[in-house]
Amino acid sequence: EVLEAMRLLEENDLLEHFHMIHFHIGSQISDISPLKKALREAGNLYAELRKMGAKNLNSVNIGGGLAVEYTQHKHHQDKNYTLEEFSADVVFLLREIVKNKQEIEPDIFIESGRYISANHAVLVAPVLELFSHEYNEKSLKIKENNNPPLIDEMLDLLANINEKNAIEYLHDSFDHTESLFTLFDLGYIDLIDRSNTEVLAHLIVKKAVQLLYVKDHNDILRIQEQVQERYLLNCSFFQSLPDYWGLRQNFPVMPLNKLDEKPTRSASLWDITCDSDGEIAFDSTKPLFLHDIDIDEEEYFLAFFLVG
């Protein structure tokens, strides 16, 4: 096709207007290797076309593809190269090829729209609610007598949990909670007992997380999905983050408050729509941690970066 294009240009006296070759190998290129291969091909093509008579050919447009690093986790990077490596490879490979073929170096053009525009916008959304916000000690309706034995045991766990036994007590609370839910389904305990079970389970989780993060306890990492908190945001992912629900494109997220405090709650994010895509689920490979807050007493905002 290239040879046929050259023939047509010559036959129609248009070869002098041939100034640029252009290619585009894809968007958001995460691996540098395909780019290097394309550059070698483009460099040789540029030099050969000049030798064939396209003396006004002086430019190579490499298109887009320069990837934006969306992940906020150093251990799980989306791309395997830096901007400096990308630039050096483009210039070096094209220059060396045309130098070996004794042709002039081309002007290099690039169209990295995503890389240029991603930083221009930030989505800021307030947190409206933590789903476990109502699970506090005031919500407990402990009976004066006839509490199920497992409820009494969970009360004991909550009262005596400490840094040394936090993981053990957390496991016990998971087991007791499952057993009590089963008893409710079978009709052996009433709705008040089930409500107390939920409240106690959340209180124990909250206390355990606080204790285990005092010394960066590694055990908490193994159960972070079980102790995650759900944060309700005043926004629509469908409207404001279309690349998330459409392409499952992740964006860096961080709180704008409490920046001097370490976040301890593994978090999933929910918007205020009723759409099934209105959730950014917790991902243990790329976890999001937020602060445990009282939304009635303080504002809490989250920012989604690189959404341009």
Structure, explained:
The chain has 308 residues and is α/β, with parallel strands linked by helices. The protein folds into 3 domains: 2-118, TIM Barrel (Alpha-Beta Barrel); 120-132 and 228-304, Lyase, Ornithine Decarboxylase, Chain A, domain 1; 137-222, Methane Monooxygenase Hydroxylase, Chain G, domain 1 (Up-down Bundle). Helices cover 39% and strands 13% of the residues. It has 10 helices and 10 strands. The strands form 2 sheets. Strands 4, 5, 6, 7, 8, 9 and 10 form a 7-stranded mixed sheet that branches. It is elongated, with a radius of gyration of 29 Å. Residues 145-218 form the Arginine decarboxylase helical bundle domain.
Task: Kindly summarize this structure in a few lines.
The protein is of the alpha/beta class.
Instruction: Please indicate the percent range of residues in DSSP E strands (runs of 2 or more).
Output: 5-15%
CATH class of the largest domain: Alpha Beta
CATH architecture of the largest domain: Alpha-Beta Barrel
Mean pLDDT: 87
Radius of gyration, in angstroms, nearest whole number: 29 Å
First-residue to last-residue Cα separation: 37 Å
